[in-house]
């Protein structure tokens, strides 16, 4: 059963990746990224409703703080009313969040039934297979996307650095999920959802971008949510 959960999670992560990249393409990126990162909300609902997991009040508050903080950090609450309509990009971001939630929930179950390294190995195999067979053809018709560009990407040092950092993150989340059986993986995935906050802080420091006070407040709120989850 663990292998089935791991395989399903691999297919879900591959599909959600395609949705996420399409969402970023449609934009706006500043909204697609934080909306897609609200997957802990779906994970919490899934593991509680279907896998009998339990969340404490403190954990619920922490997850809520992260979601609100990430949204505020991206300026979601500062938009004019006319810009709040769900564009194609935002719809794809919501679907990404849902599929990511399903993927993390099933992966957590696989790890709880087995171990993180075997479940992770199976999941990665299905990510690669599903991506090659379905995701690449799904995006291939785009003029800017081709197998030749993929091969060219291997010559880019930033692609390699991104892959190494991503691999470290994947292994870390596997290990974190293996130690969160009581909450069905909701807590470590909630912590992982703060990447838009980190992006804003790095952009402020490295690229000298102008960030509004509300965005900074949202970033701090998201970090506060992580602190709450660690209590």
Question: Topology of this structure?
Answer:
Blueprint (H helix, E strand, L loop, with lengths): L1 H25 L2 H8 L2 H12 L6 H17 L14 H26 L2 H25 L6 H7 L3 H22 L7 H7 L2 H12 L6 H17 L2
Unreliable spans: none
End-to-end distance: 33 Å
The total count of strands amounts to 0
Please state the structural category: mainly alpha
Task: Report the β-strand fraction as a percent range.
Answer: under 5%
Mean pLDDT: 75
Q: Please provide the ordered H/E string of secondary-structure elements.
A: HHHHHHHHHHH
Query: Biggest sheet, open or closed, and with what strands and sense?
Result: none
Broad shape: globular
Tags for this entry?
single chain, mainly alpha, globular, 231 residues, 11 helices
Describe the structure.
By secondary structure, the protein is mostly helical. Helix content is 77%, strand content 0%. Helix 1 runs antiparallel to helix 2, helix 5 runs antiparallel to helix 6 and helix 10 crosses helix 11. The longest helix is centred in the middle third of the chain and has 26 residues. The mean pLDDT is 75.
């Amino acid at each position: 059963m663990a292998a089935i959960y791991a395989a399903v999670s691999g297919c879900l992560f591959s599909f959600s990746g395609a949705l996420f990249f399409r969402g970023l393409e449609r934009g706006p990126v500043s909204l697609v990224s934080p909306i897609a990162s609200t997957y802990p909300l779906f994970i919490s609902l899934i593991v509680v409703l279907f896998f009998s997991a339990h969340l404490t009040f403190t954990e619920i508050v922490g997850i809520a703080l992260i979601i609100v903080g990430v949204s505020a950090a991206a300026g979601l609450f500062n938009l004019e009313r006319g810009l709040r309509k769900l564009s194609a990009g935002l719809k794809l971001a919501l679907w990404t969040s849902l599929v990511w939630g399903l993927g993390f929930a099933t992966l957590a179950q696989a790890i709880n039934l087995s171990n993180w390294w075997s479940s992770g190995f199976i999941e990665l195999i299905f990510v690669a297979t599903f991506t090659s067979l379905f995701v690449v053809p799904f995006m291939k018709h785009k003029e800017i996307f081709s197998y030749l560009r993929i091969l060219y990407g291997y010559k880019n040092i930033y692609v390699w650095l991104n892959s190494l950092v991503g691999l470290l993150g994947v292994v870390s989340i596997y290990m974190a999920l293996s130690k969160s059986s009581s909450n069905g993986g909701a807590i470590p995935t909630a912590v992982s959802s703060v990447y838009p906050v980190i992006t804003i802080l790095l952009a402020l420091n490295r690229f000298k971008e102008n960030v509004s006070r509300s965005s900074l407040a949202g970033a701090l709120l998201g970090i506060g949510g992580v602190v709450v989850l660690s209590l």
